Amino acid sequence: MAATTDIAPPPGVRPDWTIDQHWERYAPAEHDVWVTLYERQAALLPGRACDPFLRGLDALDLHRAGIPDFAQISEDLRRLTGWSVVAVPGLVPDEVFFDHLANRRFPAGQFIRRPDQLDYLQEPDVFHDVFGHVPMLTDPIFADYMQAYGEGGLRALGRGQLHQLARLYWYTVEFGLMHTPAGLRIYGAGIVSSRAESVFALDDPSPNRLGFNLERVMRTPYRIDDFQQVYFVVPSLRTLLDATLQDFGGLYARLAGADDLAIDAILPADHVVTRGTQAYAAQRALAGR
Ligand code: HBI
Ligand code: FE
After folding, report:
1. pLDDT in tens, the chain (289 residues)
2. CB count, 10 Å around CB of 196?
3. Domains in the chain, please, with CATH?
4. Which atom of ligand 1 is nearest to the CA of 96?
5. Using CA positions, which residue lies closest to atom 1 of ligand 1?
6. Ligand 1 site, residue 97, Cβ cutoff 6 A
7. Which of 108, 193, 222, 229 is most enclosed, with most CB atoms within 10 A?
8. Are 110 and 21 in contact (CB under 8 A)?
9. Residue closest by Cα to atom 3 of ligand 1
10. CA–centroid distance, residue 117 to ligand 2 (Å)
């Protein structure tokens, strides 16, 4: 039984905040937005996105033809890793979000951005969620990580330390990079669903790129409105799953007494992949953004 929340959902939204996708109701212009975004990223990502992401894109046959039908991709996904995609109106309360993840249900925005919002929007739409997040759920290790993250989120909520766990999600699931023999590759959904950040995250000299360390990540604030000032790099997806299997109790106790780090900090203990110039962030600060 999915968790309900004491925050009542809007009218027409189920207690677990899911809605029907009504795939048949999408207008041709909405499918066109998907195709435009898909084609842009499909041309850009080979050589930038990691193999599990590219394999997932193919395995789910995320159509070039338009917005996928969640029921269809859920059939394939269930067979591969037991995950399914459920439609939600947008951001849902944390405890609802975590309960879905803990039960291998990925909540995906049902709406798609307008043609004048191609490059950025605040709320996760169907392109961010299904193109960005869902292909990685075809990878068994990442699929286990996402469920473990959901279970951890429910525990963190209980301890009031959610903001630290949210950083783990942000710097891995949304903006994670990975070492591969061919060089750095992207697995974070927030990057692969963004044309500009798919280039910035790998090529720009501005951001720091540091070796992933769970405690370090959980002390590091993040940007929600602009490119990241730091990206964390994992040696493998197994590293993420192993990180969730450790004793979070001791970690939370240490974190409760630890200060947040500056977003552009580089610590002596950091494994530095790129020491960034932070030129982009400085220029945006000058522009008053
Ligand atoms: N809801 N639909 C949706 N998608 C998200 O990515 C999401 C959310 N609610 C909460 C949330 N993310 C974050 O606060 C957690 O990752 C911490
Ligand atoms: Fe996301």
Report:
1. 445 456 789 999 999 999 999 999 999 999 999 999 999 999 999 999 999 999 999 999 986 689 999 999 999 999 999 999 999 999 999 999 999 999 999 999 999 999 999 987 888 999 999 999 999 999 999 999 999 999 998 888 888 888 889 999 999 999 999 999 999 999 999 999 999 999 999 999 999 999 999 999 999 999 998 999 999 999 999 999 999 888 788 888 888 888 999 999 999 999 999 999 999 999 999 988 6
2. 12
3. 3-286 (1.10.800.10)
4. 9
5. 91
6. yes
7. 108
8. yes
9. 91
10. 17
Is residue 8 within 8 A of residue 41, CB to CB? The reply is: no
124 in contact with ligand 1, CB cutoff 6 A: yes
Joined together, the tokens standing for residue 157 give 């909520």
pTM given for the model: 0.95
169 C-beta closer than 6 A to ligand 1: yes
Looking at ligand 1, which residue's alpha carbon is closest to its atom 11?
A: 94
Report which residue type is found at 125: D
Q: At which residue do the structure tokens 């394939």 appear?
A: 76
Residue 101 CB-density burial (10 A; 0-12 exposed, 13-18 middle, 19+ buried)? buried
**Which bound ligand lies closest to the C-alpha atom of 13?**
1
Looking at all shown ligands, the one closest to residue 128's CA atom is: 2
Residue having the nearest C-alpha atom to atom 10 of ligand 1? 94
Residue pair 234/273 in contact (Cβ under 8 Å)? The answer is no
